[in-house]
């Protein structure tokens, strides 16, 4: 209830897993409840795009490394 008071919204994503990435981009959730299988599919889709070129892979690797260092 507190989240809703401060402007959060509730969104029910599509049942079509192939459109999940589109829904995610549209709603841009702060909290996302998913089952492991869906997370695995999302990870695979992201990694496929990242590994499509060496430049993307290096930028992605650098971004992850930077964020992990920031979290320490």
From TrEMBL:
One Gene Ontology cellular component annotation held by this UniProt entry: membrane
A single MF term (Gene Ontology): ATP binding
Keyword Nucleotide-binding set for record: yes
Domain of life: Eukaryota
Protein keywords: ATP-binding, Ligase, Nucleotide-binding
Keyword Nucleotide-binding attached: yes
Protein name in the entry: Uncharacterized protein
Organism: Opisthorchis felineus
């Amino acid at each position: 209830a507190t989240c809703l008071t401060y402007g959060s919204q509730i969104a029910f994503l599509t049942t079509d897993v192939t459109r999940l990435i589109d829904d995610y981009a549209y709603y841009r959730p702060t909290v996302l409840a998913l089952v492991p299988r869906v997370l695995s599919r999302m990870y695979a889709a992201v990694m496929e795009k990242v590994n499509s070129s060496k430049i993307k892979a290096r930028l992605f690797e650098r971004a992850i490394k930077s964020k992990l260092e920031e979290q320490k």
